[in-house]
Amino acid sequence: MAPVSADADRLRSLATELRDFVLRAKRALDEEMRSYPTPIPRCDAQFNHAYEQRSQLAALLRRIEAAENGADDASALLGAMAEFASLPSTDESVDERRLRARITDALAQAPRIRC
């Protein structure tokens, strides 16, 4: 029974790392948008992309926090991780690539993880 508990602990740890990453990425986008030159035309593709990306990260952050605060069910955490994996990269950093690789691995192992 210990491997299942260890897997669940790793999943929770990965979810915490994901939450922290999403928080940092959202804060960076918040700052980018605050410092964006005004006036901002509606057709500004770069601003609109940043706005959409920030909205996606905010929704993902709410989902991660709800999963962390919910019942001990791995499915909500795995769902949030799958959502992150499906989103485009935020900054192409080494840290993000490593996090995405670990999440992909956790999703591949998901059938044997139980909280």
Structure keywords:
single chain, 115 residues, mainly alpha
Distance between the termini: 11 Å
Q: What is the averaged pLDDT score?
A: 86
Shape: elongated
Which structural category do the helix and sheet elements fall into? Answer: mainly alpha
Work out the strand percent: under 5%
- Major beta-sheet overview: none
Description:
- The protein has 115 residues and is mainly α.
- The protein is elongated.
- The mean pLDDT is 86.
- It contains four helices and no strands.
- The chain starts with a helix and ends in a 7-residue tail after the last helix.
- The chain has one domain (2-36, 45-112).
What's the arrangement of secondary structure elements?
Blueprint: H1 2-34, H2 45-69, H3 74-86, H4 94-108
Quick structural gist:
With 115 residues, the protein is mainly α. It is 75% helix and 0% strand. The longest helix has 33 residues, at 2-34.
